[in-house]
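Fig. S4 source data, part A: sequence.
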Amino acid sequence: MSEISKTERKRRAQKLHKLSETLSELSPSQLNKIPLPESLSDAFQSLRKTHSNGARKRQLQYIGKLMRMVETENIERALADITQATLLDTRRFHQLEDWRKRLLCADEAFSEFLNQYPSTNRNELRKLIDAARTHDDKAHLRLLFRFIAETTGKQPRN
């Protein structure tokens, strides 16, 4: 069995450092979905409480040291699942945003929406569109967005 080259060790260390930084950017609920040993989980919690740049850097180095002792395949797989779910939520959100913009700007989008979603309460939709156009505030835009999300069944997760 041959010894691992210095270049390969550096490559692995950089990969672990990048993985650590990515994990540190996750929300607490997302991080809880990652199968981490208790020591790593505690280290990430400490990092979240650290505000000084120097202390954050030291804590990330400590996390990197802990990461060298852990098999990362399951961590990477769970991170990929979270990333995929986030991309799906973003796509859903943009589809809903597009519908809202089209409904507010073009009258033909109303009939197109009704054709695509025939069970839509057309009176409620018309009322929400008119209110959003008239009042032009966030509350009415939000109500229209929620209605579209419920009708299309494409609600982004929180």
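Fig. S4 source data, part B ends here. The CA atoms of residues 35 and 75 lie 6 Å apart.
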